[in-house]
Amino acid sequence: MRRLLPLLLACTGCGGLRMLDARGPHVARLRSLWDLLFLISAVVLAGVVLMMLGALLRRRGGSRAQVPEVEAHSVPPGGEGARPVDPARERRMGSAVGTAAVLTVVLLFVITVANASTGAALARLRSPDALEIQVVGHQWWWEFRVQDADPSRNLVTANELHVPVGRPVVLKLNSRDVIHSFWVPELTNKRDLIPGQQNTLELQADRPGVFKGQCYEFCGLQHAKMGFVIVAEAPEQFEAWRNQQLQPAPQPTDPVAQRGQQVFLQGPCALCHAISGTDAAASTGPNLTHVASRSTLAAGTLPFDRGHLAGWILNSQSLKPGNNMPALTLPPDDLQALLVYLESLK
Amino acid sequence: MKPRILLGTLVLLTACEREQRRFQELPAAARPAARDVQVSELQPGPVAAPPSEPAPATRAASEDNAYDVSEGKRLYVWFNCAGCHAAGGGGGMGPPLLDAKWRYGSEPENIYATIVEGRPNGMPSFRGKIPDTQVWQLVAYVRSMSGLLKKDVAPGRSDTLNTRPSESSKARETPRPEEVEQPR
Fold first, then answer.
1. Is this model's pTM higher than 0.90 or not?
2. What residues are paired with A172 via a beta bridge?
3. What is the pairing mode between strands A302-303 and A155-158?
4. CA B142, B145, B149, B152 torsion: positive or negative?
5. Measured between alpha carbons, how far is A111 from A105 in angstroms, rounded to an integer?
6. Alpha-carbon distance B45 to A282, whole Å?
7. Can you give the residue ranges of every domain in chain B?
8. H helix intervals, A195-331
9. B21 and chain A: CB distance < 8 Å anywhere?
10. Torsion angle of C-alpha atoms A229, A230, A236, A239, degrees rounded to 10
11. Residue A191 CB contacts under 8 Å (≥ 6 apart), including other chains
């Protein structure tokens, strides 16, 4: 049991989307706003519940002795059914309602001010040396374009994004088909990706780590399987990753991988996917230039390994029904060669 | 009496498969003749080796399925058919697809052969590039452009700006053959 407990504790953190773990300055501001709202809501809820319990448990008739008896058949002065007015009671009720109304207005005002000041604080975090990354939502995967002042250093990748620790990142969000929503709970709030409109979202990671993200706007059949990964790492490591991703895919030297490349280029793969350094330059599917450097397959659906890759190529529809990758029929030798080639695309 | 007719129609509609999305099912084969023939020397990408054994052709029941036709409409843009035949099929570098004239036949098998084998004067051969199921989806969409499909199956609207009435409101053209221009 003692051994199990740390394991269980560790597992509560693994895999999921951790909404309350702020790992960056932006989301830390949101976290303090969240704390304030939680506190206010908890106090209001507790107050309301206490009042209700008091009303339920209070003995009736405590003040009845002072109220003059009303004759059964006479009509009281206030009209049919009206109770006689007790001025002290009226005052008490009036002051209670007045206090509650004032308290409500004050609390709402506090929330409004806190909300606006959080927004202003987030706006102050904007920085001119932020790294610009274009995010394009597709059914059902993410395209990331890391921008640079030098256009030849613009980088295209999919479903896995590396960011430097300690440097603000500006995400320019857009969509190719329907409305998606970008959310990495540990690093940012949510923001929609709307076709034909550019939305902006900032994030910054304060420490290295791997953060899961997820589409948060229902976008079709495989909305749930539209995840991505953000890897925050030290600036040197990020530059190394960027330079490595900017390289064209290496020409295969192994004959099996060479055949795999031919299968890729002559077969249907090249009609949708791009591998830089080859003739394949289509952009309707994820860019596969460094596909083997990613940890997941099919937008966070599967781990990247040969078995899952083979299953995905042969019958992706059984793994993620409705996605735009058609089932392919390949002879076993061609498939093996293709797998070897794709795995060589580090 | 009327509610009964309505109810009957509704029951009939539940039986029709126009909305069914067959992601995995490969429909029964109807192998068109001369599948391995390549008429055009043009093709996307490097020259494909001739297939060692012909893959089983799958004739999707696309013609009656609204999902398949809309998939065909998406692929028509994705595979750049629109690059020559124009986004609505009005024609440009390639011949228009929404009129009554057909150089190589209007039957699904003819259009399949045109896509897979290519045609002289510019139509590339997409053999081995497009999976069979998707070729049949394209065939269904191409036929919908000249109103040859049922109106409840043809796409009713576009995802992009409409430049012409939708395929479902296209009047049915009567296909007639057109003389093929000879290369000079």
1. no
2. A134, A200
3. unpaired
4. positive
5. 10
6. 11
7. 34-46+62-163
8. 235-246, 255-266, 306-319
9. yes
10. 80
11. A171, A173, A181, A182, A183, A199, A200, A201
Local confidence pLDDT in tens for the 346 residues of chain A? 455 555 554 444 445 778 888 888 999 999 999 999 999 999 999 999 999 999 899 876 555 555 555 555 555 555 555 667 788 889 999 998 999 999 999 999 999 999 999 999 998 888 888 999 999 999 999 999 999 999 999 999 999 999 999 999 999 999 999 999 999 999 988 999 999 999 999 999 999 999 999 999 999 999 999 999 999 999 999 999 999 999 999 899 999 999 999 999 988 899 999 999 998 989 899 999 999 999 999 998 999 999 999 999 988 888 999 899 988 888 899 999 999 999 999 8
Domain parsing of chain A, residue ranges: 131-246, 255-343
Tokens representing B85 are 């035949």
Chain B contacts of A271, Cβ < 8 Å? Answer: 44, 78-79, 129-130
Quote the CATH superfamily of domain B34-46+62-163: Cytochrome c-like domain (1.10.760.10)
What is the ipTM, given to two decimal places? 0.75
What fold characterizes domain A131-246? Immunoglobulin-like (2.60.40)
Verify whether the Cβ–Cβ distance A271 to B159 is below 8 Å: no
8 A C-beta contact, residue A335 and residue A314: yes
Task: Look at residues A206, A213, A229 and name the one whose alpha carbon lies nearest to residue A24.
Answer: A206
Torsion of CA A12, A15, A17, A18, to 10 degrees: 40
Long-range contacts of B70-74 (CB under 8 A, 24+ apart): B70/B141, B70/B155, B71/B134, B71/B137, B71/B141, B72/B134, B72/B137, B72/B138, B72/B139, B72/B140, B72/B141, B72/B142, B72/B144, B73/B141, B73/B144, B73/B155, B73/B158, B73/B167, B74/A324
For the domain made up of A255-343, the CATH class stated in words is mainly beta
The secondary structure of residue B63, as a DSSP letter, is: G
Half-sphere exposure of A54 (CA within 13 A, CB side): 6
Q: Helices A255-266 and A332-343 meet at what angle, rounded to 10?
A: 100
Measured distance CA(A208)–CA(A228) in Å, rounded: 17
Q: A317, B159: Cβ pair inside 8 Å?
A: no
CA distances from A180 to A160, A192, B131, B166 (A): 17, 6, 29, 27
CA distance B2 to chain A (A): 37
Chain B partners of A327 at a C-beta cutoff of 8 Å? 24, 26, 131, 133
Asked if residue B116 lies in contact with residue B127, where contact means CB atoms within 8 angstroms, the answer is yes
Which residues of B are less than 8 Å from A268 in CB distance?
Answer: 128-131
Q: Which residue is listed with tokens 């996917």?
A: A273
